[in-house]
């Protein structure tokens, strides 16, 4: 299973949209939501970029906006390994 972190914050409608884009991949990805409001460091890094996805295996980041096709391309190597 692919491990992802979704950096965002409470009440972020774009974060909700990002989660909706991830829904079709629910059997292949595990998403941990990280509230950037809980950390000054995360706020400084992400406040103007959220939502941001980060892969646990490579630390690669994908900034919003993204759609399912973009996600599939970004995760392609991992999805092939799991198939």
A few lines on this structure:
The protein has 83 residues and is of the alpha+beta class.
Can you characterise this structure?
With 83 residues, this protein is an alpha+beta fold. It has one domain: Glutaredoxin. It contains four helices and four strands. It has a four-stranded mixed β-sheet, with helices on one face. α1 links the parallel β1 and β2 (29-35). The termini are close together. The mean pLDDT is 93.
Output the helix-strand order.
Answer: EHEHEEHH
Beta strand count: 4
CATH architecture annotation: 3-Layer(aba) Sandwich
**Largest sheet: spatial strand order:** 2-1-3-4
The CATH topology name reads: Glutaredoxin
How large is the count of helical segments? 4
**Overall pLDDT:** 93
Overall morphology: globular
So what's the oligomer here? single chain
| Low-pLDDT windows of residues | none
Number of domains: 1
Helix content: 25-40%
Protein name: Glutaredoxin
InterPro entries: Glutaredoxin-like, Thioredoxin-like_sf
Pfam families: Glrx-like
